[in-house]
Structure formats: C-alpha cells, structure tokens
Structure to design on (462 residues):
C-alpha cells in the first residue's frame, strides 16, 4: 500500500460564538450559547472543499441552594477539527495499490483472470488500484461531532476543602469518514468495479450505498462514554494542599474516533474503520474458507460492541504537598499517586486487500488473547508514585534561589503496558511476536512503564 504526498494543501477555519448569561434570583445562573463551525480544505485535485452549516449549541446552569453547596450541569456539542491529513490523502491522489507476481524479482505480473495464489487463498484478482484519484464527495457531508453531558455537585467543607461527585456522558453523533462501496471479498471474487473503486468522503451509516450484491451494509458509529468521578480538593492553607479523584468509567461502542489506539493509525476523518462495510456476513461465509481471511470484519461493527481501546474503567489520582519553614526559607515536599486500569486486548488480523497488519479483529472487542503472561483480557493495572521537593532560599531583599528535585516512578515499577496484538504482520504471514509482553507492533521499543527518573534544577529570581 503506497501513499502519495501532494505538492500543496490549504486549510482554513471560520468559527463564531455567541453566549449570554441569565441570572434568575440570587441562586440560579444559566449560560446558553451557540458556536458556528466551518472549515475549508484544498488538496491537489479537490481545491474548494467546504464543511459548512455546523451549529454547536451549548448551555450550562449553576444552582447554589445554600452557601457552600453548588449543583451544576452542562451540555455541549463539539465538532472535530479536520487536519491537513485529509487534504493530503482524500482531496489528492493517494492510491492504495496491490499487485501479484509469478517471480520474486517482480518482473512477471500475474494477469487478472488467472487463478493463482497460496493454497487456500487463491484468487483471480491480482491487481487493485483503490483511491487512484481524489475521494468522491458526498454533497451532504458534514463535520463529525460528539455530544457531552455533565452534571455534578460540589460541597465546601471547613478548611478550604471541596468535595463532590460528577457524572459525564459523551457520545458521537456523526462521524466523518471515507468509505469504499464494495465488501472486502468482492475484489477477491472478481466482481466488476471492486478492484478499482473510489472512496467517498461521507457521514457513514446504514443508509450509505453498498455495491456487490453480498448483503453487506455500513453501520452507524457508536461511541458511548460514561463516567462517575469523585473529587476532593484543598487549596493551600495551613501549609498543606491536596487534589485527588477516583473515576469509574466505561467506553463502549464500535467507533473509537479520529485515532485508533489499537493499531496506532492517526488519520482523522479517513481511518480504516469505515473503509469497507462492517455488517458483512460474506467475510466469514466466503472470505474465510475460500480465500484464507482471518477474524471477522463484523467485529468492527455491531458484533464487536464492547470496550473500545481507550477504555480505562478505574483511575485514581492523588497529589498532595506540604510546606515547611526552615531557617526562614521554604521547603515544599509533594507526592503524587497514579493508579489506572490497563487497556482492553483484542487480537488483530491483517486486512486481506491492503495486506497490512493490525486491522481485522479476531474476536469481539476486549475478548482477550493469549499472551506470554497467559490469557489476558487487559494489560495489567499500572501504579506510579512520584515525588517532588523544592527549597527556596532568599538571597537578599529582591533575589531568591529555588532548588528543585523530582523523582518519577520512585519504586521503579516495570509493569507491562501493552502486548503485541498483531496476529499477522501482513496478510497470510503470522506474526511470531503475537502476544509477547512489551513488544507492541503499534509503537517502537519495549512497552513498559518508564523506569525511575531523577530530575534536578535551580531557578534564580531577581
């Protein structure tokens, strides 16, 4: 698979915002607003692509029934800003080309129509050219967005201590993606048009057209995030401060968003999640037995609804500090504790057409895989303890010297943060490191918590 780089792209953004504040009595404040978003992009082929008519309402309310107690709630719609990556790849020529050859020097291409290939995955299609030109543009395409709902309570306790719970919900209302109208197996079956299809930039869903006659369809993006968080905060007084929280959350659905954490793809608006129809029974009914496909593309859709790759159910964060007076100078000691759930694990097969690994789920999301640490559904919990010390020394009436020391990961924990989830490196080529702890195919280098680190510094004020 190759990607062309255009000679020139352009990008502009035209936002506008209106907000008002309504005071009802002395206890209730309501702040409604609306934001307008418009983006213009240009590639080397499509020169004037506009995403217009994107209205983002916002409203917030705060109620203080008694002194020291505050209840609040907010709703907002937020549009994703589209970077120039989309202009470079979707509005310009960015061909995905595959070709088969009889010989290793790649001098004798196999003509289309000839049945050839490894046993169990033979096909008559040996040359594909997908996206040879710019994407087709759905005339009704709009920016993707997500909705956020937030509600909480804060209570002011004696001693500058504030505590309270809050609830957060986020969901994706619309996704911007490029799609190819044929199911994956259509190319291997030699269905006319499938090997040279163009992509269409659209807002995919059940109504997105599908060709090929294999009873496949696209599905609506699902991205549901729910969290309950308990916070405690004490501003610096009586020589000490603390800031802490515990968050329980769930992130479920079929669509992660602009970035794929499971395979490291960073192509906002043109990820591979919607390149082909995901509600596609032909992938396993035909592709697996006839062409050696692995996994099931339907696990990318509704059959795979489960924990998305960024799901982290439990997160604890505590940071505190204490100020000591020593010889008329200040010594601040501080420490931080971070505890978090590991990432859900899903093995990924290669895309049979693109050839590249890390694409098609072997199981429903988060169902786990065999690793060098046994069968795991998540990577381990991570715990880090950090320390900080700062000593301020006065040097006359107008100068002072601050000596600073930080220690990260004090106990030098070397917890595994990821396993290699690529079952295949390329289509038909099994990855020997599949399931190996700390050997992710997504990121270079070993995947463990960073070892203990020390940092020292000095700061002179005058």
């Amino acid at each position: 698979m190759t990607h062309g780089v255009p000679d020139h792209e352009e990008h502009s953004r035209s936002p506008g915002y209106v907000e008002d504040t309504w005071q009802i009595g002395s206890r209730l404040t309501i702040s409604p607003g609306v934001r307008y978003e418009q983006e213009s992009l240009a590639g080397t082929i499509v020169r004037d692509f506009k995403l217009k008519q994107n209205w983002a309402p916002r409203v917030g309310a705060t109620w203080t029934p008694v002194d020291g107690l505050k209840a609040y709630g907010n709703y907002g719609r937020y549009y994703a800003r589209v970077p120039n990556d989309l202009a470079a790849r979707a509005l310009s020529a960015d061909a995905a080309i595959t070709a088969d050859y009889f010989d290793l020097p790649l001098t004798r291409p196999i003509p289309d129509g000839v049945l050839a290939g490894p046993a169990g995955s033979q096909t008559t299609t040996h040359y594909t050219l997908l996206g040879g030109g710019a994407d087709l543009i759905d005339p009704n395409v709009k920016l993707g967005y997500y909705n956020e709902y937030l509600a909480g309570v804060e209570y002011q306790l004696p001693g500058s201590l504030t505590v309270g719970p809050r609830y957060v919900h986020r969901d994706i209302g619309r996704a911007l993606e490029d799609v190819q109208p044929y199911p994956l197996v259509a190319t291997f079956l030699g269905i006319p048009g499938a090997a040279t299809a163009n992509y269409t930039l659209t807002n995919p869903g059940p109504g997105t057209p599908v060709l090929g006659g294999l009873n496949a369809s696209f599905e609506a993006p699902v991205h549901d995030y729910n969290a309950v968080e308990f916070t405690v905060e004490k501003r610096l007084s009586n020589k000490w401060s603390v800031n802490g929280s515990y968050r329980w959350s769930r992130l479920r659905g079929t669509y992660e968003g602009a970035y794929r954490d499971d395979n490291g793809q960073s192509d906002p608006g043109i990820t591979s999640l919607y390149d082909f129809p995901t509600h596609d029974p032909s992938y396993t009914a035909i592709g697996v037995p006839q062409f050696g496909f692995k996994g099931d593309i339907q696990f990318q859709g509704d059959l795979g609804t489960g924990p998305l790759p960024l799901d982290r159910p439990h997160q604890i964060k505590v940071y505190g500090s204490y100020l000591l007076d020593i010889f008329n100078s200040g010594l601040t000691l501080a420490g931080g504790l971070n505890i978090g759930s590991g990432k859900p694990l899903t093995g990924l097969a290669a895309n049979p057409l693109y050839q590249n690994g890390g694409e098609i789920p072997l199981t429903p999301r988060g169902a786990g895989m065999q690793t060098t640490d046994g069968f795991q559904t998540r990577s381990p919990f991570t715990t880090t303890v950090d320390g900080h010390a700062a000593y301020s020394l006065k040097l006359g009436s107008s100068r002072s010297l601050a000596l600073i020391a930080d220690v990260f990961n004090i106990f030098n924990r070397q917890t595994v943060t990821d396993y290699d989830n690529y079952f295949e490196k390329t289509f038909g080529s099994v990855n020997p490191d599949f399931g190996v702890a700390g050997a992710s195919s997504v990121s270079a280098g070993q995947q463990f918590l960073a070892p203990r680190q020390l940092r020292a510094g000095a700061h002179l004020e005058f």
User: Anything to note?
Assistant: The chain has one domain: 10-318+343-380+410-452. The chain has three helices and 29 strands. Helices lie at 84-89, 184-188, 282-291. The first helix runs from residue 84 to 89.
